[in-house]
Every structure is written in structure tokens, then in C-alpha cells.
Design goal:
The protein is an all-alpha fold. It is about 85% helix and about 0% strand. α7 runs antiparallel to α15 and α10 packs parallel to α16. The longest helix is centred in the first third of the chain and has 31 residues.
Length: about 400
């Protein structure tokens, strides 16, 4: 009994370290990402086409290098080393981006930021889902703390940018990346054996791509989550174009993430009464009225308020997506599945969507952009139906 009690305490202690790591890591992201497009527009004074090009760099680099990080991780099991190096370099390039206004320097540092950041997300998610599933927890139990960190960061940074400028972002990112690294060094992970026998290192990702259900899932997630994630950059630009301030964006983003957290908590309470797949579909359906408002209305306050609905959608798909991928694949392929999902559904789709969106806005309008996105999202339900039919077999 005493040994069991000690073991439970150690498990919960390690879970709390994961929680703090996610809080600090996403705080740093929340202090930078919402303001990056605004920084390029208002401080660097870059035209919309160039902003679109720079925003597309991160997903483009991820498409090319995420599989490489995955192969390295599969072969050598360097999970923690890759994450540690990635966070250090991400912080360095955030600093370099925010002390430059020249397009070519900002573009180069954004490329390098993407190179190191693309290996962090899928690997840290894989480590977390392996640990939580082994000890009876869910990925969402930990991811909630990431959302909390992101919410606080956007709220605080909205104020600090207005009062002290973009230097405040450098200070906040550096502080919380250091805290994240300190926590990550203490994380205990669930180790998987190195790949052996007839599984060639370089072909391990290809084995996942032979799964027909996973291919259909990639199409579904690309046309829904991938497109919608890329669109978030342009909702911020749309709001600033209508006269919205950084403090308004900060407050609304924080409220959105608070709603996201509440939704995540609710999902953990209802446990398995609703399947992950149904929750995933609901999260996409919720985005439809949001898109309709951005197509038909130009009132600043309405566009700000409707952003809150995205909190419900994010609160559903962020934890559910990782759980759903882990249900499609065996444990040893989860990391590869997450990397392929991130590289193809999120980053490849994000690259195409982001770079084309900049030109669509210039050639046509924001409304045309949101109409196209709405059509793509509705198309994703065809693949959702196919995936549902395949899961029933």
C-alpha cells in the first residue's frame, strides 16, 4: 500500500510538471503569435502580399523538415533533446524578428523559427499522450494548461504592447521559454523501444501513409482544421483593417481561450459519453456561423464578438484531435501520425491557404477569401462521412 501510494504521488507530480511545461510553453507562443502579423503591418510596414509570404514560411518549412525530425526521433529516440533545442532556437529567432523591420531579415528569421519549431509540437504531444494514456489520464487534462497560458499571455501582451511596445514580447517570451525548459528537463517520459527488424527508419512515416483511414482523415483535417487554422492570421488583419486595436484583440483572444478552457474541462467531465469523432465534427460545424458572419458583415464589434465562438470549437478539437489520431494508430506510430498530420493537414494546407489568401485579399476582398474558406470547410464533411463509414467496418 505504501509503495502504491508513493507511486501515485510520483505519477501526479510528474503530471503537474507536464501541466506547468504546457502552461509556460504556450504562454510564450501566446505572447508572440497573435501579434506577429500586426507587428509586420504596423511596425515593419510590410504590404499584405509580403505578410502573406512570411506567414506561409513556417508551414512550408514544416512540410519539408517535420518528417526529417520524425525520422531522427524514430531512429535515435531524441525526443527531449529535439524539444529542448527547438525551444532555445525559437526564442532566439523571436528576438531577432522583433528587432528587425527589413523584409528579408524578418523572412529569414521566420524561416529559421519554423525550422526548429516544427519538431517541437508533434513530439511533445506524443510524449504527453503516451504518458497520460499509460496512467489513466487524457491529453486534454494537460492541454488545458497550455490554453490557460495562451489566454493569459494574449491578455497581458495586449496591454504591454500598447504601453511598452514590442520589446515587452521579447521579455515575456524569454522568461516563459526558460521556465518551460526548466520544467521539461524534469519531465519523466514513457519510453518506447527503438524500431527494429523489417521496419526501415526512412520508411517508417510511409508505413503510416499506407493506412487508408489515416489518408481520409488527412484530407478531412486539411480541409477543415488546416484551412481554419491558417485563416486566423487574416481574421486579426481584418479586425485591424476595420480599426480594431491591439488591446481589443488581446481581450477578445483571451476570452476566446477562456471559453476554450471551459470547453476542455467540460469534455473531460463527460468522459467517453460522446465519441472523439462526433466531438470533432461538432467542432467544425460550430465554425460555419463564424465564417458566415465574416462573409456578410463588416461591423467591428460583431466581428470581435463572433471570435468567441471559436473558443468552443478549439476547446473541442485541440484535445480530441490528438486522442483521435492515437485511436487510429498503434502506440509506436503515434508520433509519426502526429508529425504527418501536422506537416500535411496543418502546414501544407496552411502554406497554400496563407500565401494564396494574401493575394486573394489584394485582388478581390476579405469577403471573397472567407467565402472560399467556407466552401472548403463544407467540402471536408464529405471526407468526414467517408471516415465514419470506414470506422464502422
Amino acid at each position: 500500500m505504501l509503495l502504491n501510494s508513493i507511486k501515485v504521488k510520483l505519477i501526479k507530480k510528474n503530471l503537474s510538471i507536464y501541466n506547468f511545461y504546457f502552461f509556460a510553453y504556450f504562454f510564450a507562443l501566446g505572447a508572440f503569435f497573435p501579434w506577429f502579423p500586426v507587428y509586420m503591418k504596423e511596425v515593419a510596414e510590410l504590404p499584405k502580399e509580403r505578410i502573406g509570404i512570411i506567414l506561409s514560411f513556417s508551414p512550408l518549412i514544416s512540410i519539408l523538415f517535420q518528417p526529417i525530425w520524425g525520422i531522427i526521433n524514430d531512429k535515435f529516440r531524441l525526443d527531449k533533446k529535439i524539444v529542448f533545442l527547438g525551444i532555445v532556437m525559437m526564442n532566439l529567432f523571436i528576438i531577432l524578428i522583433l528587432i528587425n523591420k527589413d523584409f528579408y531579415f524578418v523572412a529569414m528569421y521566420a524561416l529559421l523559427f519554423g525550422l526548429f519549431s516544427c519538431g517541437v509540437g508533434p513530439i511533445q504531444d506524443s510524449l504527453t499522450v503516451l504518458y497520460t494514456s499509460k496512467y489513466g489520464f487524457k491529453y486534454g487534462d494537460v492541454r488545458i494548461y497550455g490554453s490557460l497560458g495562451f489566454a493569459l499571455a494574449t491578455l497581458i501582451t495586449g496591454y504591454t504592447v500598447k504601453e511598452y511596445g514590442y520589446t515587452s514580447i521579447i521579455i515575456l517570451c524569454t522568461l516563459f521559454y526558460i521556465l518551460a525548459l526548466m520544467a521539461f528537463m524534469k519531465v519523466k517520459q514513457v519510453r518506447l523501444p527503438l524500431l527494429k527488424k523489417n521496419i526501415k527508419r526512412k520508411n517508417h512515416l510511409l508505413l503510416v501513409l499506407k493506412d487508408k483511414r489515416f489518408i481520409v482523415f488527412l484530407f478531412f483535417s486539411a480541409l477543415s482544421i488546416g484551412v481554419l487554422s491558417a485563416m486566423s492570421n487574416y481574421t486579426t488583419l481584418r479586425i485591424t483593417a476595420l480599426g480594431g486595436s491591439t488591446s481589443q484583440i488581446g481581450v477578445v483572444t483571451s476570452l476566446t481561450v477562456i471559453i476554450e478552457i471551459i470547453t476542455m474541462i467540460y469534455i473531460t467531465k463527460i468522459n467517453n459519453s460522446i465519441s472523439d469523432f462526433k466531438l470533432l465534427i461538432i467542432s467544425i460545424i460550430i465554425q460555419v456561423p463564424f465564417l458566415l458572419v465574416y462573409v456578410f458583415f463588416d461591423q467591428l464589434n460583431l466581428l470581435l464578438y463572433i471570435l468567441l465562438i471559436r473558443g468552443i470549437s478549439s476547446g473541442l478539437f485541440i484535445p480530441v484531435m490528438v486522442n483521435f489520431i492515437s485511436s487510429l494508430l498503434p502506440k509506436e506510430k503515434i508520433a509519426s501520425g502526429l508529425i504527418l498530420y501536422s506537416a500535411l493537414s496543418i502546414n501544407l494546407t496552411g502554406y497554400i491557404t496563407t500565401i494564396l489568401s494574401g493575394y486573394i485579399i489584394v485582388w478581390f476582398s476579405y469577403k471573397v477569401l472567407f467565402v472560399i474558406i467556407l466552401i472548403l470547410v463544407l467540402t471536408s464533411f464529405i471526407f468526414a462521412f467517408l471516415l465514419y463509414e470506414m470506422k464502422k467496418r
